[in-house]
Amino acid sequence: MYLYRKMFSLLLVGWSVTVFGQKKNQYDVIVYGATSAGVTASVQASKSGKKVLLISQTKYIGGVTSSGLGATDINNHFAVGGLSREFYQRIFQYYQKKGGWREETRDNYKKRLGKQFYGAWNDSLKMQWMFEPHIAAAVFKDMLKEAKVNVVYNERLNLANACQKKDGKILAVNMESGKVFRGDMFIDCTYEGDLMAKAGVSYTIGREANSKYKEEFNGIRTGKVVGVGEKSIDPYLKEGDPSSGPLPFINGHVAGPEGEADHRLQAYCYRFTLTTDPKNRLPITKPANYNPLWFETTGRMFRLNPKLTLDHVLTLTPLPNWKTDTNHADFIGANYEWPEGSYQKRKDLEQMHRDFVLGLLWFLVSDSRIPEKVKEEMKTYGLPKDEFLDNGNFPTDLYVREARRMVSDYVMTEHNYYRREFAQDGVGLGTYWLDSHVVSRFIDNEGKMRIDGSFWENKQSLYAISYRSIRPKKEECTNLLVPVCLSSSHAAYGSIRMEPVYMILGQSAGLAASLAIDHKTSVQDLNYTMLKDELHKNGQLLFPKDVGKK
């Protein structure tokens, strides 16, 4: 009897680590980061017949696409293919159904939006790129469920010991919870590139010097005066008194030599949702952590120029059912510690950015320098009762516009955008303008407040994004793909960093990982012609010549 019990116990132990021939927590493809790219990477790998695990660091999926960024930057919707196009087609289908337009008609919304954001939808493609946050979240969940993707929530890398790696290959990832997930291929779809960094892959943060890649828009860029024309607002805590020091988050000195490299990042924000629907609107109230000094620059701007409107402070783009995607509440200078920050540091910065948004709304309805017309308009808006129900009706994900960027064998640069250089191994298309938000504010040698880092190159482009830019150097890691924090200069990343493109590159990474498993090869040695053919079969558009083809 003892021998029987012993044998049964050993069998039980064996069963606990092996399920139907698979080791427990053993997967073909592990996707870390449930951003929009994480969803498409997981769905594609699963459709390719692989056992897939999608690891979400929180209890949410979709990244900023389902967290307020509902006014999608698609300046060329014909260049969006594959699962990215499918996502926007599913959005289109939702709003065609009864109940999609709950509070207004489709025609009324079209009239409110006007010509903004390229018209909201394309009936011939059956795509819609303007949507409410909770609808995006629902669509992502449907896509994952239908593809039978395994998803785990609230699991984060153990930053002290994130990877088990041997001979340049990741064997497993270690979670804070103590869980270990083993895989053959890994895809880092986080906005920060945490897995990439912990796997020993080369990366950079901030702005390269223009001289590095012979670019124009990289590095430190002295911008316009913060004020009216060349008349600056006073930049000091005590107006007229330089000895009092600069206002919060204002550099007290010149940013640095023009075009030179530095560590700073373009500002982050929350793309938060507001509504003007009285039935669905929460009133704007004073937040607990209100710091009026954070908004002193705004107050002094209105005092200097009382003709300013609400649109000079916030971009309130209409979304369906009387909502907005609210942009440009940028907390300039508050994000530099984010990419390399601990989880606690990032949590603190998230709270700061949340306090900044809620404080700004209160400032705009309460400060004596704000014109009454602006105050009254701001009071018509409020957080919607039917969004982000478990987060105080506030977005769940900070808009991390840029963090780490991988440095691989191929670096995307301005030259790709201008089509002076062509990637022959395309895995998706970039279309957006070169675009960076303000990186810092500083006091120049004349005592004026100026901005640094902002650029907007309003030139339509269509260019291939290289496969080599989403995989590391072979000597660093052979089974990792990085479709979000890809290998790109700061300048080029300003064009690439759009959610539709992340979804496109995520899908391409998911298929590349699957093919590498099938052919028992590294991601670097994967046959590109084979990858290209399979990507085309899965609806991806890889080169400008693909656009417009059925």
Description of the molecule:
The protein has 550 residues and is an alpha+beta fold. Helix content is 28%, strand content 17%. It has 14 helices and 26 strands. A hairpin with a 5-residue loop joins strand 22 (440-443) and strand 23 (449-452). Helix 9 (343-366) crosses helix 10. The radius of gyration is 24 Å and the shape is globular. The N and C termini lie far apart (69 Å). The model is unreliable at 1-22 (pLDDT under 50).
Structural class assignment: alpha+beta
Mean pLDDT over the residues: 95
**Share in β-strands:** 15-25%
Tally of contiguous helical segments: 14
**What best-fitting shape do the alpha-carbon axes yield?**
globular
CA-atom Rg in angstroms: 24 Å
Helix content: 25-40%
* Overall strand count: 26
Intertermini distance: 69 Å
Largest beta-sheet characterization: 7 strands, mixed
**pLDDT < 50 stretches:** 1-22
